[in-house]
Amino acid sequence: MKAMFQQCRKPTGWLGTFMGLGMNVGHAPLWRWGLDHVAIQPDATILDVGCGGGRNVHTLARVADRGNVYGVDYSRRMVRLARRVNRAFIRAGRVEIKYGSVSSLPFPDGTFDLVTSFESAIFWPSLVDDLREVWRVLKPGGTLLIANEAYKDERFEERNARWVELAGIRHLLSPEETRGFLVESGYADVEIDVVPDRNWIAAVAKRPWGA
Predict the structure, then answer these.
(1) Is residue 211 a part of any domain in this protein?
(2) Going by C-beta distance under 8 Å and a sequence separation of 6 or more, which residues neighbour residue 105?
(3) Is 114 part of any domain?
(4) Cα distances (angstroms) measured from residue 206 to each of 44, 91, 155, 166
(5) What CA–CA distances, in Å, run from 94 to 30, 43, 91, 177?
(6) Which residues contact 158 (CB under 8 A, 6 or more apart)?
């Protein structure tokens, strides 16, 4: 069980592939709920940070059907899986999956209309620095969406403590703390939504115009 939980942060080997395939199915409800918080234009340029098995990239490419979608992950096993899942879109020139870290994204400044992060920001090495790196690659006025299946709430304290221990979660924040980190990192128009009964959280924030 501990070995399986440890695969959540950086999947490796055959067990990592198994985890990635499971995430492609198990995280779909969170993706659908999270994406309901943003308006995606058909010609948008989008980045999914910590793209895992790549199914959310596939979903984004279908929504932005005249745009381009990129995924980045620091697990080479997930990069291979995400490329396989999105091979048709990759052949069409609409999707690209890259190996890399949120701490040093392999993209120029001001590239993306939308950056998404599902179940990955909880593992980022340095939250403020990494949020600022995402800010760098967003266009002015661009949107960041972060969604996770856990946030700090006393009703889920025992379960979440176990996840922190087994999966190596680094940032388990309350809604107020989440807002604070986003503001500190330079974002504006921060909106937080939660599903209390499921302990889900979504944060939407923008890189300000002129910044």
Answers:
(1) no
(2) 47, 49, 72, 133, 134, 136, 137
(3) yes
(4) 15, 31, 30, 33
(5) 24, 11, 8, 36
(6) none
Quote the domain boundaries for residue 174. 2-206
- Encode pLDDT of 50-73 as tens digits: 999 999 999 999 999 999 999 999
DSSP code string of 102-166: TTB-SS-TT-EEEEEEES-GGG-SSHHHHHHHHHHHEEEEEEEEEEES----GGGHHHHHHHHHH
**What would the pLDDT profile of 141-172 be if each residue is shown by its tens digit?**
999 999 999 999 999 999 999 888 877 788 89
* CB 148 within 8 Å of CB 172: no
What CATH number did the domain enclosing 93 receive? Answer: 3.40.50.150
| Residue 14, in any domain of the structure | yes
Residue 23 domain flag: yes
Q: Angle at Cα 21 formed by Cα 15 and Cα 26, nearest 5°?
A: 115
How many domains in the chain? 1
| Angle at CA of residue 103, ends 101 and 109, nearest 5° | 100
**What predicted TM-score, i.e. pTM, was given to this entire model?**
0.92
